[in-house]
Amino acid sequence: MGRVIRELRPTQRDPGRVTVRVGWPAAEGRRASKGRVVATLPVERAQELRLEPDLAWTAALAEAVTRAAGHDRAFRSACNRIGSRAMSRGMLADRLRRAGHEPEAVGSALDRVGRLGLLDDAAFARALVRETLRAKPAGERLLRQKLMEKRVPRGVADAVLAEHRDDRKQRAEAGEDVDAEAIAFAVKKASTPSMQRLDPQARRRRLQGQLARRGFGFGVIDRALREALHPTGDG
After folding, report:
1. To bridge 57 with a disulfide, which of 3, 102, 180, 209 should be the other Cys (CB 3.0-4.6 Å)?
2. Eight-state DSSP code of residue 31
3. pTM over cut 0.90
4. When comparing pLDDT for 148 and 27, which is higher?
């Protein structure tokens, strides 16, 4: 007779999870072995697999339990990571893969986390845009770059940036100067001692480069340069 499931025991930390212990059953001239714990699973998953004491530990059952345990570990890891900081689905997938979880388990974990409402790429992208703009003025090119770096899907990034453009348009139509923060950024940069030591053309080039790295378009950069450098007579 081969090995069997010796025991399903609730864990001390979480009674909703059980350890699966496998060992040798009693036989003539041999006492039953204590065996060893081969997996820890949610109670409902153990029930789905119809695990119970004295069930024969076949190769097929071992494979099914190992697979279920891998999926469970990936899901728990995903919940821990998403609970500590917001991230996109792509970011979470990268971290789970780097942690050594199998691709199938990663996919399953992402789907389960998504069904729980803990993964929302659009909400994450909107928050990232707000956070970036709150820190410093930024143009659309830089916003897109940051969204791509955070593994936001291109389609989601396009939609969120379209919302951002629509918001700017509505604010502009209401009479707001939507470029005011970019101009203030340029004025502040132009007034630093290191900038003031440069000749006018070098100052213009450096300021233009700083604005471009913040992702601003040519129209905004041109206006910001004129207003930032005008007091020095370079506009």
Report:
1. 3
2. P
3. no
4. 148
**What's the rounded Cα separation, in Å, for the pair 177 and 71?**
52
In this structure, how many other beta carbons lie within 10 angstroms of the beta carbon of residue 7? 15
Q: CA nearest 221: which of 200, 197, 205, 199?
A: 205
Sheet with 4-10, edge to edge strand ranges: 4-10, 17-23, 36-42
Residues 6+ apart with CB under 8 A from 196: 203
Rounded Cα–Cα distance for residues 53 and 50 (Å) = 10
For residue 217, the one-letter residue type is G
Rounded (10°) angle between helices 218-229 and 180-190: 50
Is the pLDDT reported for residue 32 higher than 80?
no
Exposure of 136 in the CB half-sphere (CA atoms within 13 A): 14
Three-state DSSP string of 154-221: HHHHHHHHHHHHHHHHHHHHCCCCCCHHHHHHHHHHHCCHHHHCCCHHHHHHHHHHHHHHCCCCHHHH
**Is residue 109 within 8 Å of residue 96, measured between CB atoms?**
yes
Average pLDDT over the chain reads 92
Instruction: Report helix, strand or coil for 69.
Output: helix
